Amino acid sequence: KVGIIGRLAGAYLKIPTVFTAHSWAFSGIESSWKKQIFIKIERFVGLLSKGIITVSQYNLEEAIQYKIARKVDKTMIHNGIVDTITSTNRTRNKDSPIHLVMVARFALPKNHRLLLDALKQVSHRSWKLTLVGGGPLLQDIQLYAKTCQLDKQITFTGESTNVEAILQSADVFLLISTSEGLPISIIEAMRASLPTIASHVGGVNELIDDSSTGFLVDKTDITQLTKRLELIINDDNLRRKLGINARNKFLQQFALEQMIDKTEHYYKQVLFQ
Questions:
Q1: For the chain, which ranges sit under pLDDT 50?
Q2: Beta bridge partners of residue 99, listed in sequence order
């Protein structure tokens, strides 16, 4: 709504607008008629933009595929965040359970239920899970955790302003979704030297190098997810190696300064062309 209203207002006031698409309104929609409606809306308001930034190559390719604002200049600039980590040394008691964390709103397209189904298959392993976030499906997932007899291994924090500290205390980050753009939560996990297991959707594969910084899994494949969870829970050296690689990739590609420089350059290019 904001992207539509902002560009309509810009056009009315004759103010050039640059729209940043963190995902498209039609991304992840399976209903064909709903998808077509959102594609037509994006095509229309896209023409009101002076320029368009997508935060992932995946979203840029979607714009080209669905002919969004064909005559409007478009570019891809990955999200970046400030590096607030002062120490990357991770120490843990070898007898402590592996600490898994997922930071996500309890709403579609986040698939907490699939994660719990997979974790139920490895409940005999030593792990604990922290689920950070609020949302309309929170109580449903809490009830489902009890149904799966996993509630004693899971902590629901609700919405939190302490995510960075939670990530620093964790061993593995998880993001199981049916649709994504370029998740900031994974970039935050990379900054914290965490390996990530995430659904292979949207631009997630631009963040995670499979088997190098984490693991990509099919969004509906519980068997694959279960195997990856068991592997990463059981192997301390693997977690450490993937986490170091993730931190290095964050520093090379997703630091805030890079995003700012590229965005400023693009704004100047669009405004003065």
A1: none
A2: 128
